[in-house]
Design brief:
Number of strands: 0
Distance between the termini: 56 Å
Structural class: mainly alpha
Order of helices and strands: HHH
Shape: globular
Oligomer: single chain
Number of domains: 1
Helix content: over 70%
Amino acid sequence: MDIGQFVINVVQAILSFSEFIAEEISALTNGFVPEGAVNEIGILILLVLLRVGFDYAKKILEILIIIFIVYIIIQLLPSIINSIG
């Protein structure tokens, strides 16, 4: 197996794992989290797991985690406002 095939296999594994996380989050929240945000939450969880495992990429992962948190908050804001009001 060459390096290109290895990278493709790793990316496919990460995507399938994030789809699994997204399905579980969607089932757990019973529609409170909009469909558009479910994949981002899965990616956020993967980034947090990467952050825990790899300290050498700490700054990059922290920036990506902050970006995804802001994006998820923006996606969830209408649901939160509707549930309050």
